[in-house]
Design a protein that fits this description.
2 copies of one chain form a homodimer. The first copy, chain A, is α+β, with helices and mostly antiparallel strands. The first copy, chain A, is 26% helix and 30% strand. The longest helix of chain A has 15 residues. At the A-B interface, helix 4 and strand 2 of A face helix 4 and strand 2 of B. Strand 2 of chain A pairs antiparallel with strand 2 of chain B, so a sheet runs across the interface.
């Protein structure tokens, strides 16, 4: 386990790597979860205001999440996420794009109701191969504090709560 | 085409229907996009603070989006979405749950930069079969105004802009 609450110092930047986005995946995701023609139908998309297929914003968020889990959450004392704020898609994601993801710690404080946990808010951002930002959002996460994990000899798992 | 900007009066409620969530779908979605053990591994999930498998919050959002597209967006003069605010998951979604989705118009105003468009903010909510709310979020959408569509004789598609 690499990352505890104390590892999320304000301003720390985590580079989360990149992933390619294919037309096939854009269409498959949107067919299942966001079946609007400019996400699922190449011909209709060409006639839309976007001039061609673009990824669902939900899909872009999901691709970010995979990189975030692989790069940080999956190797952390995560206790889940209460939510996400200010999700924006300032530019479209198109077939063949490669997205690069980054997570920057914006705030970190101890939980008032759960002193063994801390609450971290991070600015999530993804940009394409031309450096254009395609998504930003503010992600809230809970992490066990290191002393609590050490005192337990394992990760604290005190059961579901409303920790904010 | 049923829904133009003018159809989103503040307070109007759209019942979006329901969908069942299977363990297979929870695991498949999370394996692709949010591979944390409490989403993908039944045994590890039983030992987690959640006491069993729960759906990724991204998955819950995606399920909502499908119902929103099927019930409203897919039959509307939608011009896309700039983003989403205040996404929260107050209770977990578990295998076998059935989610019921609702969209309530919270605000509606004309676009300042694009007078032929309007900007609608809606409260999205999903509850399970016991009436427990499992997700809320505030969704922003752009819709063509009816007069503009009628003047065009078709949906206005004036190209990508930053309409806020």
């Amino acid at each position: 386990m690499t990352f505890y609450f104390e590892d999320f110092s304000v301003g720390r930047v985590f580079e989360l790597g990149q992933c390619a986005v294919s037309e096939e995946e854009i269409v498959a995701f949107a067919t299942g979860y966001d079946p609007q023609p400019f996400h699922t139908d190449r011909v209709a998309a060409a006639d839309s205001m976007f001039g061609g297929l673009i990824a669902s914003g939900v899909h872009t968020m999901a691709l970010y999440m995979r990189l975030f889990v692989e790069g940080v959450l999956g190797d952390s004392a995560s206790q889940g996420s209460p939510g996400i704020d200010e999700m924006r898609w300032p530019a479209p994601v198109r077939p063949g794009d490669t997205l690069r993801a980054r997570y920057t710690v914006a705030s970190a404080r101890k939980s008032r109701s759960r002193p063994e946990w801390g609450i971290v808010t991070g600015l999530a951002s993804a940009e394409n191969q031309e450096g254009v930002t395609v998504m930003t959002m503010s992600v809230i996460n809970l992490f066990t504090r290191r002393y609590a994990a050490e005192a337990d000899g394992r990760l604290a798992s005190p059961g579901p709560v409303a920790p904010l």
